[in-house]
Amino acid sequence: MQIFITGYGVISSIGLNVEENYNSLKNSKSGIKLTESTVFKNYKVANIQYSNEELATMFKLQTKGSRTAILGMIAAKEAFKDHELSSEIRTGLISGTSVGGMDLTENLYKDYLKGNLRADEYKHHPSGVSTIEIAKELGLEDCFLNTISTACSSAANAIMQGARLIKNNVLDRVIVGGTDALTEFTFNGFRSLMIFDEEWCRPFDNTRNGLNLGEGAGYIVLESEKSLKLSKSKAIGVLSGWNSSSDAYHQTASSPEGYGAILSMTGAIEMSGLGINEINYVNAHGTSTPNNDLSESHALKTVFENDVPPFSSTKSYTGHTLAASGGIEAVFALLAINNGVLYPNLNFSEVITETQLTPQLLFEENKIIKHVLSNSFGFGGNNSSILISGLN
Description:
- By secondary structure, this protein is an alpha/beta fold.
- The protein has two domains: 4-231, Peroxisomal Thiolase, Chain A, domain 1; 241-389, Thiolase/Chalcone synthase (Peroxisomal Thiolase, Chain A, domain 1).
- Helices cover 33% and strands 18% of the residues.
- The protein is built from twelve helices and twelve strands.
- It has helices spanning 18-26, 52-58, 67-80, 102-113, 127-138, 154-167, 184-192, 225-231, 259-272, 290-303, 315-318, 325-339; strands at residues 4-11, 33-34, 44-45, 91-96, 144-148, 173-180, 216-223, 237-246, 281-283, 311-312, 371-378, 382-389.
- The strands form two sheets. Strands 5-4-6-7-1-8-12-11-9-10 form a ten-stranded mixed beta sheet, sandwiched between helices. Strands 2-3 form a two-stranded antiparallel ribbon.
- Helix 10 links the parallel strand 9 (281-283) and strand 10.
- Helix 3 packs parallel to helix 5 (127-138) and helix 6 (154-167) crosses helix 12 (325-339).
- The longest helix is centred in the C-terminal third of the chain and has 15 residues, at 325-339.
- The radius of gyration is 19 Å and the shape is globular.
């Protein structure tokens, strides 16, 4: 049973829509920069340069919500823009997030300490509320809704759950992906883990020293063949494989040998029925942390038997957008396939000593890209890989 992809939408520090994101990828324009904001002052983050109010006005949003919800509304609306609701098509929304409405809550708490209590605003805090607010903006309030929160693998797991629901004839069409906003809570949390780099992140580089945080949202629309016939939507790709694993090695670190990553990548490829030599590009998780990139490098060499296809981490453009990363990178995978391109791994200069792997260093066009493997690995060893393919 084929699961078709019929729409995509994205917002990140490198663009407010699919076209802007693609142009930034094409021109090696990173969204990671020093910021003047009070919270992140003098640190390099990949934030979107508009306030909640400005974004709501620009995109004519009718639903109030946290920044996480607002970013999700923008990307999900772009993904779903050419689709119509129908009683004949069972439609759902599955959204991943890690911080939910924390951006509002932490400011409300500061106001509370000053004696200003606005208790009703705390309703935006729970992760699931952002999904409800996105659904309301899309007109999907009476449809199946679910929220996934598995740290950095959230959006990838949302995509997989949507695919399973279609495969098992529970739904016909699902908007899937994830959204996360930059918050003081997140920023200080990663600094406390000592995996936040004060310089530009350098995925898969021997001198890598940590990640740069980002914010954004990315969604794709999955449809069954039945739904495709009813909706008359145009397929732009196929979700051909997916798999998740849990190595349970450590609360935050991946196993040094990449066992969980090996299982998720191998499982996704086996599900697709493809051979390892048919994978044309890997959009790696590539957080630029010492542990992840070494672990993922070992895993890539094991899965592809030392003949690793072109790979890169687009987090060198967008920063690490946490729960949103799998959704954003699914959009980038579709763009790679439909435009025949490979994305460079920015800021790279020196191979990792132990693995000697060199990522993709140039933006290359006129490539035959039929199958892209996209990795999303979360805390606690929650490893998820999805395989996106072009149309036959």
